[in-house]
Amino acid sequence: MEQVDILAKRLRCPSTVIAKAKEYFRLSQLKYKGLTDFSLAAICLELSCHQLGEAVDKKRCQRFSGLQVKQYLNSYQNIEKILKIQSRTTLRDIALRIGLPELEAPAGQVLKSYQNHLKYKHGSARYEAIDFSSSLYTAAAIFTASKLLKMKCDKSKLLAISSNNMKTFKNVMEEMQEAAASIVQDILDTNCTGKSTIEGSDDQVESITKNPGTVECIRAQSFQERCVSNPKRQEYIEWKEKMLKAP
Fold this sequence. Notes:
The protein is an all-alpha fold. The chain has 3 domains: 81 residues, Cyclin-like (Cyclin A, domain 1); 105 residues, Cyclin A, domain 1 (Orthogonal Bundle); 39 residues, no CATH class. 74% of the residues lie in helices and 0% in strands. α7 crosses α9 and α9 packs antiparallel against α10. The radius of gyration is 20 Å and the shape is elongated. It starts with a helix and ends with a helix.
């Protein structure tokens, strides 16, 4: 599996991605024929990055594979099916991956408003032709929600999860922002008050409340204590530990 290590170094992949890519590589060698080891390694690394929410340059993966674009995409999709990797990613999955589980609910509001917007603006034909459960729309909804709530979010990770190029991702995100304009206040009222938001990161707390005493009080709690009092945070910790232990 040295091909995985060689390409991972060029792509600057973290150790968690490398470990998962090697597992995909081993399984793919048993079930899929017709690719060189370097071609297979490139595909497995991209798959691993997408599954773990890590940024990856799709064009570089394709170039390192030595395959033509169409051949690379076909092989990628075939291996994805063979390994039974779920290409659709739920809002909860993405929110957990990026460490912001509190974005799940507002992202759901954004996605719903976007669906209504498309149906009203373009009619049922376009609305029914779109798979809103695909990672492009769920990732864009998460990022749009983070912008509305002024929460720091890793755009490169969400772009990787979306499995699309920046232009497509940006276009969908801008449409979602337009659609969510009418419900911004509802999103803020629902998600910027109460316990779940206060239990975010220190930066988020400081941006939401100007009361130093409250901030100091929250900072005095340990991270684990906050996780116990917030089910979504606890779920994120459990998910992260599970992914790190995965082969």
